UniProtKB/TrEMBL annotation:
Ranges of Low complexity composition bias in the record: 94-107
Keywords, sorted A to Z: Coiled coil
Protein name: Prespore-specific transcriptional regulator RsfA
PROSITE patterns: HTH_MYB, MYB_LIKE
Recorded superkingdom: Bacteria
NCBIfam families xrefs: DNA_bind_RsfA
Segments forming a coiled coil: 123-174
Amino acid sequence: MKTRQDAWSHEEDVLLAETVLQYIREGKTQLAAFADVGKKLHRTAAACGFRWNAEVRKRHLEAIEQAKKQRKERKRALEMMKKWQKEQDPFPFPSAGSSQEAEGSSPFLPAAPLTLDQCISFLQALRHDAKQLETAEQENERLKREHAEWRARNEQLAQKIERLEARQTTVQEDYEALVKIMARARQLAAEEGDRLPFAQWLLAEAREQNERAAHS
């Protein structure tokens, strides 16, 4: 079986994927990546784009999302660098030809070249901001743990209150039953004119109640 001349090899697919992912990370277009790969493989940019969309792209979905994330992080870091540079030198003096150089330049590049001292100062400031962010994240985690603990304690107290309310209901019912027994005992004593002590009448009534409960 002959191999077609336009068939893509595994190595070519890898080159295409790596180039496109690199361009995504750097904030460049995929069309530029297809053109770059086409020159290296002696293929047209359209053929590279078709191969990417038809076969290669779906095998690197996770890598594409990671590359997009890195592009955002890189853009944010460079924007911070531009802002920091502007704060350090609020009135820069443009060099000759700087306007022509700025035209067509990537939006990810700094507005002007940085000195080594400026780069070091920026990285130190960035490190300080990273430490502050880490401290804030740790504080946030601590607050989350405290919230969970207070929530668990609140649930325990709610259960305890529920048990106490149920117990109070039982005590109230027992008290009402005892009042009825005492009233019944007084009524029997008055009707029969018996001189037995009140405690004996109470005991007799309680025994009668227990017998009724046993037969019910």
